[in-house]
Amino acid sequence: MQEQIQEVLALTNRWVKRLSREKFSMLFTLVQPMLFWLIFFGNLFQRAADVQVVQAPNYMSFLAAGVVVMTVLNNGLAGGVDLLFDKENGFLERLMATPIRRSSVILSRFLFVMAITGMQILVILGVAFLFGVRPETGILGIAVILLIGMAFGIGLTAISMAMAFSVKSHGDFFSVLGFLSLPMIFLSSALVPLVAMPGWMKTLALFNPMTWVIDAVRPLILSGWSQAIPQVAIAIGVLVVFDALCLYGGAKAFKRTVG
Amino acid sequence: MSAPIAIDVKGLGKAYDGVKAIDNLSLSIYQGEIFGLLGPNGAGKSTTLRILITTLKPTTGTATIFGRDVVQDADTVRRLIGYVPQERAIDRFLTGREHLLLLADLYHLKKDEALTRIDQLLKLVSLEEHADRVAKGYSGGMKRKLDIACGLLPNPKVLFLDEPTLGLDVQSRLNIWEYVRQLRDQGITIVMTTNYLDEADQLCDRLAIIDRGQIRAIGSPKDLKAGLGGDGIWLTLGDPTPQAVEKLTAALKTLPCVRAITPRDRGLDIRVDGPEKALPAILETAGTVECRLDGIEYHRPRLDDVFVAHTGRSMKDELPEPTP
């Protein structure tokens, strides 16, 4: 146990070091989602969005929950990419020839991606705060948002790692990534509430776990506990199933690669 | 060899989607020797190496390192071995020292123990000056030195080197060879893959020639070369008519130093025990039967010849490496 902690900490430390030395990448990772989506989109659609439809004082406070979950989505889906590079250049083989528990590499990646995601969620909520978005459920609500976000992130990171271990080249990986992420966003309640969607899109969005996560985060920001609690409960149920499926698939792909 | 067996491979096979990368491979590697796996790309040497370092499971057969099975007892095997991958396997955002610190944690070394050992290793490969620079700026030779330091960090009983001098300049190659010999002299068993014949020839105590997934020959470079039937003397005749060739062959066959004669283009390939007595005797015989010679060449057999003799092709005809 103590040995595994040593392994996981050392490997996580490596991810942190890498990020801190890729200054540009760090800047974009941290700043891009809130700048692009929250500030630009939030302000751009301020007058186009009908407050009656979005059921929020303004579009940005409606969008905040969507941007939080979109950040989780992007981080999660990209979470496996460093392992893919490690697989391609042989670093993974070097790690696997050492007497570590096979799971340590995976755990370190989960830990790192979750930490980055958590920080980004806080930054986004902070920026939204500057634009006047005050979460109705306060500090405790923010803690719940973090937990739900990370629970969603675990499944997504598992999918990403499964892909990293299965694809033949990183070209394939990025194609699939590009193909997955935008439809996931548009076919969810991130930008528009379900009630405002065309029927067929709404149906598809109901099968998107992201919708359920957003619909739990949104009342935590906009409405308060009484409306949030049932939504959070549903989201937890959805996430338990989602994470179980993703982790199972991820574990299979990992076993196939490293034995 | 009287040394105990370090690595024992029996009937090892690995197939990718039904395609056999290696097939029924058996060999023993003794403690304290430098053992080379020689073959062109795609021959199966990397597959063999990866099974031995426990990162790939064989389809058939077994391999043990100091009696420990690489599949059943992988964790113990991993504590006995060090691995030096090809140069690309370096994290260019980490410094040399950080690579070693990371591995120290993966081998569960204690902090102070790790720090002392890392300082020693950096000194050994003379990389102290560059230890705190990120690896992005390292030259090929420096990366290799770092790789070797990484491989030695766990104080291994067996060190695996994958193409240790691929793409290095001559000076760096010689340095690496020197390190490898020093390590062998300290009692470490060394297993390396290479597709350089001169490297196998000069560095390896014994080697296995692998081609298309099978071992074609195994032994010391000296024995393998001797197995070709001695040194070669090539004669080119001034007038290579069949009668002249036949007459000369018959005469040469009576010489005690001649072991075999085969015809070659415009002349003969004569295998002899050594050039000192054979050369004058051959010249004298040619004079006696009045056969005019246009040229005479003396060849010590090279490993290239061994390779061609056992595989029927030269190292240059490469096949693509199968990947999982």
Provide a concise account of the structure shown.
Chain A is 81% helix and 0% strand. With 259 residues, chain A is mainly α. Chain A is globular and about 60 Å long.
Task: Please provide a written account of the structure.
The complex is a heterodimer of chains A (259) and B (324). The model of chain A has no long low-confidence stretch (mean pLDDT 90). Chain A is 81% helix and 0% strand. Chain A is an all-alpha fold and 259 residues long. In chain B, strands 6-7-8-3-9-10 form a six-stranded mixed β-sheet, sandwiched between helices. Chain B has a four-stranded antiparallel β-sheet with strand order 2-1-4-5, with helices on one face. Chain B has a four-stranded antiparallel β-sheet with strand order 12-13-11-14, with helices on one face. Chain B contains eleven helices and 14 strands. Chain B is elongated and about 80 Å long. The longest helix of chain B has 16 residues, at 170-185. The chains are: A mainly alpha (259), B alpha/beta (324). The A-B interface holds A 3, 6-7, 9-11, 13-14, 17-18, 21-22, 89-91, 93-100, 257-259 and B 50, 53-57, 75, 78-79, 81, 83, 85-86, 88-91, 93-94, 98, 101-103, 105-108, 134, 150, 154, 160, 324.
Main interface pair? A-B, 26 and 32 residues
Number of helices of chain A: 12
**How much β-strand is present in the residues of chain B?**
25-35%
Straight-line N-to-C gap of chain B = 36 Å
* Biggest sheet features of chain B: 6 strands, mixed
Low-confidence stretches of chain A: none
Structural class of chain A: mainly alpha
Radius of gyration of chain A: 19 Å
Overall geometric form of chain B: elongated
